[in-house]
Amino acid sequence: MARYELILSGGSGVDRFQVAPGGIVLGRSPEADVVLTGQSVSRRHARVWLDGDALLVEDLGSRNGITVNGKPVERAALQAGDQLGVGESLFEVLKYMAVAEGRSVISYEQGSTLCDLFVREDTDRFPILYRATQLLGTVFDLDQLLSDILELIFDPLPVRRGFVLTISKESHEPEVRATRSRDGQAGGPPLSRTLVDHVVYQRDAILTRDAQDDSRFDVSQSIMGHAIRAAMCAPLCGRQAVVGAIYVDSGDTDTVFSKDDLELLTVLGRVVGVAVENAQLYQENIQQERLAALGEAMAGVGHCVKNVLTSLRGGTAFIDQALDKADVSHIEKGWPLLRRALERIDLLVMNMLSFARNPLPERASMDVNVLIDEVLDVVRPRAERAGVSLDFVPCEDGAAWADERQIYRVLLNLLTNALDACVQRGGAVMVTSACDEAGCTIEVHDNGVGVPPEILPRLSQAFVSSKGSNGIGLGLACSYRIVRAHGGNISVKSVPDKGSRFTLFLPSDTGLGKPDLDEGDEMPFAL
Amino acid sequence: MMQERKKALIVDDDEGTREFVMELMHNEGWDTTVGLTGKDALELAEQEEPDLIVLDVDMPEMDGFEAFRRLRTNVLTQRIPIIMLTAINDLDPQGGHDDASMEQRLGVDRPEAFVDKPVCPDDLIKAIMGVVG
Fold first, then answer.
1. Closest chain B C-alpha to A470 CA, distance in angstroms
2. What residues of chain A lie within 8 A of the CB of B59, using their CB?
């Protein structure tokens, strides 16, 4: 037989009134079973009684009437969770099993033995465990995984609502990570916090058939507010610590869970706990790697800028001397330093912005030969100073379909790299262009130091550089991105101490495909 | 008799710094030779017998610390004064120049002078004057 209580929450706390089989009377009169105060309450206001398993309420001819869930009624059947209004007082209806069979607890240590037992002996529940471990191997998104695990236990267990909580790294409190309910409605403050806290901090798995009667738990707002009768909660145990909890309850029915159910939940908690812990460690690793990469990038930028500052300071010092002594020869020394510093900081900043923004190309008709000439004019002074020869063999018609500004940057990066590779070696840099219906192919050859073989496969990655202080490894990364956004590609042939050849292909607007860039293994210069 | 011009070896992989130090030293009446790596420093020091080496720390192939240690253990080069160009965190990530981290990188010997990067012309001239008079 069902048992009911009326719960009245007020400023001073919670009052609970058990509904006796013969019924109870609510009113202002001192003779009433539930004595209420307030101007709008009549002396004998309403009666609540049991008829079999049903709970009924009737108005005893009060002046202001009664309401159920906000609606005025004269007589009505009450369900668990209903709100009964009598004058200013609002009662919540609680229903639970008359016979509380007690509770079950599985300690952390017992849980460990249980896992072995499950795998070795249990035939009924093993399939669920097997499906759970299958999920661990196939679902890599943690939230999806937890949701799928919940779905798994809805099948064999009479669960109304289920939650997976993980302990937040920030607040160190259990927070709901996945929810599921049989009727598809999950809302409000969701679960018995007292139960979860106990499980997380004591590491016990707990089954309570009647949370209200369970002396371990205060009758907290969360339990009453949701008419929780039977609930189970098991810790998610990782290898190192409890990382959360899995919680299910049966809600408003007469359903109870069995000890077997608790065992299943306990074992699932172990399996899922390891997965959660792994996922958290993985996330932390990624975060640390990101921070490390950021640190590396900032160090690279700082180093590069520091060197540019040296040039700026040096150049400025010479200009100062020129002004002090009215000696033009000092300007001739200082000015190239300043100009070079300006070029370098320009290239650095533009590459950083390009890398950060990664803008889409705005393609238009253009002439690659004109563009190459333009870039060559920019780098020529430096080539001359370094004693590097600079040649260009243009094709007849350089018509192309590309974002001129972006490709300018790509060519500037490729030519700057080629010069860097040749400085101090009195080398040679040569550019060729070849355009047809398929697109434009531009090659930049140099006979410089070459790219170290260990770096070659990673050239398109950011912050990969063999140029030491002369680069931070953004130029090529940006160039690869730009060219790929054009539907083209960059390929490289390089031999240490012999030279490099960077081949850039930009498809035409008709997009007739691209030549195989790996053909032609001859190095550009006979060395 | 005209005094022979002194010769400096400048080793830095950064072109801008190299050019600046070169110009500065020309201005001070030095002849210069330049190298880009630690290996260049070892080779050119033996070959050119310079009166001074200006040595960067962060270079590819062989860094300035290793080059320094090798220069100081080679009888042909161990007497050449060395000015090291350092970024603050080349010596210690925390920015300290404590004995332990210095010894780990440089060995028991020390360069004649350190000049911080970005190099300030006056600092470098002072260091040169301090080292070779």
1. 5
2. 468-469
Low-confidence stretches of chain A (pLDDT beneath 70)? 1-3, 9-14, 95-103, 119-123, 184-190, 210-229, 251-255, 424-425, 468-469, 511-527
Q: Minimal CA–CA distance to A280: which of A170, A198, A190?
A: A170
Rounded to whole angstroms, the Cα distance separating A159 from A176 reads 17
Angle at B29 between CA B28 and CA B35, to 5 degrees: 90
Tokens, residue A143:
């939230």
Per-residue H/E/C for B33-79: EEECCHHHHHHHHHHHCCCEEEEECCCCCCCHHHHHHHHHHCCCCCC
A381 token code pair: 């002074």
C-alpha Rg value of chain A to the nearest Å:
39
In chain A, count H helices and then E strands. 10, 24
The answer to whether B118 contacts A306, with C-beta atoms less than 8 Å apart, is yes
pLDDT for residue A66: 94
Chain B's closest residue to A310, CA to CA, is B118
pLDDT at position A301, please? 84
Cβ-Cβ contacts under 8 Å, A340 against chain B: 15-16, 19
| Whole-number pLDDT of residue A212 | 53
Q: What is the mean pLDDT of each run of 10 residues along chain B (133 residues)?
A: 79 87 90 91 93 90 90 92 80 57 79 88 90 81
Helices A126-138/A108-121 angle, 10° precision: 100
- Measure Cα distances from A350 to A402, A423, A445, A475 in Å: 19, 23, 24, 9
A303 in contact with chain B, both atoms CB, cutoff 8 A = yes
Please, which residues bridge with residue A520 across strands? none
